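Could you help me review a protein record that somebody else here produced? Do not assume that whoever made the record got everything right. The record follows directly below this note.
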Amino acid sequence: MSEELKPVVQEEAADVAQKAEQVVEDVKEFAVSLAEKTLAELTDLFQQLKESEDRMKRFKEAEAIKSAFYKKLSREKAAAGEDAAVEEPDENTPVEDSTVPMQSGPVSPFAAIEAGFKGLYMEYKKERAEYNKEQDALREENLAKKQAIIEELKVLVEEPGDMKDAFPKFRDIQNRWREVGPVPQQNFRDINDTYQLYVTKFYDLVDINRELRDLDFKKNLEAKTAFCEQAEALAADEDVVEAFKELQKLHEQWKDLGPVAKEFREEIWERFRAATSVINKRYQSHFEGVKEQQAQNLTAKQALCEKVEAIADKEITSSSQWNSLSKEIEEIQAEWRTIGFATRKENQKVYDRFRAACDKFFERKRASFSEFKDSMNENLAKKMAIIEEAESLKDSTDWKATSDRLIELQKQWKEIGAVPRKKSEQIWKRFRAACDAFFTARDNRPDGQGSLSANLAAKKALIEEIKAYEPSADTDADAQKAFADKWNAIGFVPFKEKDAIQAAYKEAMASKFPGFGSRGPRRGERGGNGRERRPLTETERLKEQFSALQQEIQTYENNIGFFGLSKGAEKLKAQMQERIDAAKAKLEELKAQIRAKEAEEAQE
């Protein structure tokens, strides 16, 4: 090979290597960018590529999208509990096969997605096959054209004739050579080497017109000097990636120019190579910075993985805790999306780790809520049993026993857990209706005993009866018991009258029966063995009142809890709360009195 031909060959070799490296890097970067896209996004991306004007030149992107789609499909099918195996079409898949095989049993939700994507891919593959066929034919035509041009050049080199005529022919041959498109890859190097050989021979071995040759060298030198200036300007461009791409275009144009004078060949090539080296170093430095940032992104993503893994392993006992942690994971997922790519080697691994931790948490949540649903259905069955019993009692006239049973059922209702939301209000209204039906009938029964006002009137009449009673030694015990039984048989009175009527009753009884309020038969009353029982001490009497008041408070609290479940029961709740507060205050008074009495008895 001549010395003048070496720079040209070196330029071409360097250019081809650099372009190949750039293509590989671009495809790898594009493939990494697809890792976190959804199946729908990958399908849309392929659709956009398929509709683009340069789609036939972007086949490597198409293959990268296809590969990312089937990897994502396999993972999501596995996560959904389906068979993760997928049939990824390749160069051996018949173009006519654009459907997904029929499956027995339930249709997978992924079938339509896979069929849609595969249809797009097969259409693109078919179109590309036609395109490649056309391009192959065109390359063969171009090869024939270039071989014919070389034969013309060979004749011109071997029989130059008059240089004034030969040089325009040479220029015409060069122009026609540049206009011919690409040839088959396997013929590229040989055809170009042969062409460059005869071009060099034309310049160096044939005695051509020196003036025309020098003019041609001068034009080539001016053009290559301009390329050097453009490359040097690109070396200062802030957009390193774009500068690198523009440099590749300059190399493409440089290769098509003829040589310069011998004395300038090394110099002009070294200048262009120096600018190229600066751009390449900046490009390399840029990607080293990208790699450093990706390493930081990897660390940040690993930290988020650890957070989600810790949450996924937590012991969770309530739906509110599940919902709170779900929101926390959603916030972590949002933060994940703000972090850029990790290193190419680790990006998919860390994403799979993060996805696995998220899937684990939400799978546990689904299982927990399934168990909770079963529990609610059990609670529903229990409450339905209570409703049926309440409805069977709503028409009862056994006022005391039925009242006690319904109050017990109300207490049981409160203790049973939640039921399905769509049933909650419905069954509550049904249970409430049954209870209301009974208590309304009880409070409005014909004998008047169900009315609070009637009860008050009855208690006032009984007090007057007690006041009118004339004590007798023989009948005191029986009369006291009879009066007490009548009083206890009368129901509740209006709350605001409760204390006053109770005080009036105690005063009337104490005036007629000394020692009234003691536990058991009063003085002169006999027990079951015929003996007269000991009167209660003041401390015992107070304790008996204390115990009775505690039971009364418990009943009130059960009732207020029940009323609290009902809409429009605020007035009842307020009245019941007043009773509870007053009873608790009285309870504290009794407690103080008991302590004082116990202290007095201890001193005695």
User: Anything to note?
Assistant: The chain is about 75% helix and 0% strand. Residues 1-6, 519-533, 564-568 have pLDDT under 50 and may be disordered. The first helix runs from residue 5 to 33. The two ends are 135 Å apart (CA to CA).
